[in-house]
Known about the structure:
This protein is α/β, with parallel strands linked by helices. It has helices at 15-31, 34-41, 55-66, 114-124, 128-143, 151-166, 186-194, 237-252, 270-281, 301-311, 328-338, 356-372, 411-418, 423-440, 460-465; strands at 2-9, 45-53, 74-78, 82-83, 86-87, 96-97, 104-112, 170-180, 212-218, 221-227, 255-261, 285-291, 316-319, 341-343, 381-391, 397-408, 444-452. It has 3 domains: 2-166, Collagenase (Catalytic Domain) (3-Layer(aba) Sandwich), CATH 3.40.390; 170-343, P-loop containing nucleotide triphosphate hydrolases (Rossmann fold); 356-465, GMP Synthetase, Chain A, domain 3.
Amino acid sequence: xxxxxxxxxxxxxxxxxxxxxxxxxxxxxxxxxxxxxxxxxxxxxxxxxxxxxxxxxxxxxxxxxxxxxxxxxxxxxxxxxxxxxxxxxxxxxxxxxxxxxxxxxxxxxxxxxxxxxxxxxxxxxxxxxxxxxxxxxxxxxxxxxxxxxxxxxxxxxxxxxxxxxxxxxxxxxxxxxxxxxxxxxxxxxxxxxxxxxxxxxxxxxxxxxxxxxxxxxxxxxxxxxxxxxxxxxxxxxxxxxxxxxxxxxxxxxxxxxxxxxxxxxxxxxxxxxxxxxxxxxxxxxxxxxxxxxxxxxxxxxxxxxxxxxxxxxxxxxxxxxxxxxxxxxxxxxxxxxxxxxxxxxxxxxxxxxxxxxxxxxxxxxxxxxxxxxxxxxxxxxxxxxxxxxxxxxxxxxxxxxxxxxxxxxxxxxxxxxxxxxxxxxxxxxxxxxxxxxxxxxxxxxxxxxxxxxxxxxxxxxxxxxxxxxxxxxxx
Length: 475
């Protein structure tokens, strides 16, 4: 139980204006504290008091308690000896009181001057709610033992303040599904936006098999991109699993970004129509991305825009080059305008949902597609069997040992993948290892094994092993 007791001892601002944002912010901070969560798990609640006072009384308290004869915005009075979120000595049973027969720990009191908060909000050009939010976060961190007396402590406290306030802000936030036919440039765009390789790129069609999330963080927005498998007519269980993934992502997204090639003739294909029909049915925002403008004359783009605008009325039509980055700033700005405004959904370390194991397997598969060209068909998979980290004395990575299986369908494919005297699999491993070391910022030791599994693309257990569906599922 978290008990936020609010008292109003001034007459300018009413409780209905002040208390909701203070209570919500205080609960957010306290629920984010590992110390508080541990207490709650042990059946011990926490309690704080927040008192609103006028400027004259605030100045008097500041003078008496801190020796500063000036009006301030918030004062904190901790009840427990804490240091950066932890008690400096074990808690004694007598330190908790028992309202309603449930033990609770009193953390202390905040005193806030709404008049001073309003002045600061006006000078900073934001709302009173925003200022009260900041003062409540700042004050409770003091109760939890955080301070800013020295540079190191101030840096720690300020970083935590930013993180907590980000979790309370309402900004344009949501999912954008990048969809289009194979090889239209979706993975290139995702990698360009994220600044690193999250989705592999290859001249071969249907390179992307998973819906890959990459989150971009801005001061005024957060955007989660889904790069889906290329839209196509499936002819096996693998293709059906990929299209199921694509359709699920389209249904879940807030915005559908449909990508087409600037060199195409003015025609709306069956795959594009299917996406646009879903968007219309679900009342979703749509953006038409006309990619590869660096390789097509501008005159060819206008008929494409006119055709889609006349038939489907997308919310925006944006010519881009995923390869060079041209037009991506306009794309991001348009997304910010179309996304719903809500609380941030991601932490700053949620850059992608692709685990390092998945990224490692995809980098191996990229090298297979690059180096074998047309000798090996699309039906190849990579399964990472082990991913072991070695740590140095400082806790950093000293190295990563990875063992992975390359799965193909025929013995003839295995011969190509292994190469004469193992030359091909060594070359694949060397280039994949270099890419992994750049991505993981650590030495990588990579062992690859080529294995034949006939008809794996139609076997649910094999599709489950490569992460495309649960191993006991059917398609």
